[in-house]
């Protein structure tokens, strides 16, 4: 059993990349088993379906996100400082776990209803924590607060892929993403129009 688990961990990233790059519907259990160095029967013993394996990776993704928030929370600062640290943490996590981000963004709808409920619970927990760390905007209804948390989380998790095809070096890409995310999230968090940073565009 220990040897099996060691072998599974060794090939896990390869299987994750396969599923994320080709798409959930394009990969069968036999191909996944092969990428993991297992027989289909061995894989079915631990994961009755592709959905169970997908859920495992998505749960791993949200657990890592929550751990990342916890590290930032250990040293609480001002909202602006927390925002910058959260942006940096999410960009770094995207570099470390790019295939997880792709799976969550694209394939959650392939899960069963019960599994999707589990993912929603994890996502909502993460979104609530984000708002708590950044300071909940006042004068918003409960539903508007939930929408704000969802919008901020979506920005943080999806933005790193926006510039993937651009001819930018790492420093340029990071700076542009930080500026985009900071401006957008600060506007979401602003409670009044007078609080919102103005958008000035220089015209040559």
From TrEMBL:
Give the matching PROSITE patterns: HTH_TETR_2
Q: Identify one Pfam family in the record.
A: TetR_N
Annotated HTH tetR-type domain ranges read 5-65
Gene Ontology MF, one: transcription cis-regulatory region binding
Alphabetical list of InterPro entries matching this protein:
Homeodomain-like_sf, HTH-type_TetR-like_transc_reg, HTH_TetR, KstR2_TetR_C
DNA-binding residue intervals: 28-47
The cross-references to SUPFAM superfamilies, in alphabetical order and at most eight, read:
Homeodomain-like
Q: Where is the signal peptide?
A: none
User: What UniProt keywords are attached to this protein's entry?
Assistant: DNA-binding, Transcription, Transcription regulation
Q: What is this protein called?
A: Helix-turn-helix transcriptional regulator
Source species: Pseudomonas veronii
């Amino acid at each position: 059993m220990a040897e099996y688990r060691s072998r599974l961990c060794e090939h896990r990233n390869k299987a994750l990349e396969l599923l994320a790059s080709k798409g959930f519907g394009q990969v069968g259990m036999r191909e996944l088993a092969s990428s993991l160095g297992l027989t289909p029967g061995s894989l079915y013993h631990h994961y009755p379906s592709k959905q169970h394996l997908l859920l495992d990776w998505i749960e791993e993704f949200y657990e890592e996100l929550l751990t990342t928030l916890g590290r930032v929370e250990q040293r609480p600062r001002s909202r602006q400082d927390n925002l910058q640290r959260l942006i940096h943490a999410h960009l770094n996590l995207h570099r470390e776990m790019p295939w997880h981000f792709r799976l969550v963004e694209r394939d959650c709808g392939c899960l069963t209803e019960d599994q999707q409920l589990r993912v929603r619970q994890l996502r909502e927990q993460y979104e609530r924590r984000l708002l708590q760390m950044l300071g909940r905007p006042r004068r918003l209804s409960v539903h508007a607060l939930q929408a704000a948390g969802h919008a901020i989380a979506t920005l943080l998790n999806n933005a790193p892929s926006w510039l993937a095809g651009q001819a930018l070096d790492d420093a340029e890409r990071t700076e542009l993403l930080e500026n985009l995310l900071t401006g957008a999230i600060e506007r979401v968090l602003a409670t009044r129009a007078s609080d919102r940073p103005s958008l000035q565009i220089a015209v040559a």
